[in-house]
UniProtKB/TrEMBL annotation:
Taxonomic path: unclassified sequences, metagenomes, ecological metagenomes
Protein name: Zinc import ATP-binding protein ZnuC
Matches recorded under Pfam families: ABC_tran
SUPFAM superfamilies: P-loop containing nucleoside triphosphate hydrolases (SSF52540)
Enzyme Commission numbers on file: 3.6.3.-
Domain ABC transporter span(s) in chain numbering: 40-256
InterPro entries: AAA+_ATPase, ABC_transporter-like_ATP-bd, ABC_transporter-like_CS, Metal_Ion_Import_ABC, P-loop_NTPase
UniProt KW keywords: ATP-binding, Cell membrane, Hydrolase, Ion transport, Membrane, Nucleotide-binding, Translocase, Transport, Zinc, Zinc transport
Gene Ontology biological-process entries: response to zinc ion; zinc ion transport
Region of interest called Disordered, as start-end residue ranges on this chain: 268-292
Amino acid sequence: MARRRRTVGMAKSLRGENELLQYNIHPLHETLVANTEPLIRMEGVSVRRNGVLLLDAVSLAVRPRRIVTLVGPNGAGKTTLVRVLLGLIAPETGLVRRRNDALVIGYVPQRFQPPPALPMDVDGFLRLAGASTAAQREQVLDSIGAGGLLRRPLRALSGGEMQRVLLARALLRKPDPLVLDEPAQGLDVHGQQELYALIVRLRDTAGCGVLMISHDLHLVMAATDEVVCLERHVCCAGKPEDIGAHPEYQRLFGRDLAGLAPYRHRHDHHHDLHGDVVPDPQRCSAQGERRG
């Protein structure tokens, strides 16, 4: 039995036309997660364009209150996978199953650059998400640390501000799950830390499932429940603390990078959207107690 449990806890290499991805989790939570119906799942999905195989029998699932991070080299098919999930590309083989017909997917693109002459403020941009009140739009901005941006012109936003506005637009649709394509693109390391921490809070407070594409391996490992390595097919999948030792992960990213421990950022302040330091009394107090 002990040997079996150790085997279940290891990251598994998966490839098969009809094989569903089985995620590796702590034994105490294994039954709970296995019995939770996925919000959305792919089953043996393959995509071919102009004779080139972009996805090969890919299976994965996104469940409530779970962050799944998709990693892989350029050209691995990550963006193609997201487009299949969004219904923008029909798979050549395989299926995409949603928990119900009313499921709403919130999508945050990799980048959005508004035209310089576009006469639109943040409020007008958020109204494009659908029916909402000004109070609701302001509240969702406040909830993600972007309060005060409602009347700002889109063209005047920094990269970090724009990413949060895109996230607010997705959240206004009351989605489940959220799909984030390189959400920390163009942010400095402090902005990345704050954004990933925000995504974790959204998982915990809103209870939504999250599928995230990322290249920030060292940072994102601390902000995810599951990692899926993609190179047109699923090379390996598992918990962040296990996946770094998997041979396929090391093959994709190199032993030096793959061996990095999950990054845990702890100090007595955080950074606002502009990167400025903002003292955090709770963190200061907690660190003082640990030093004492």
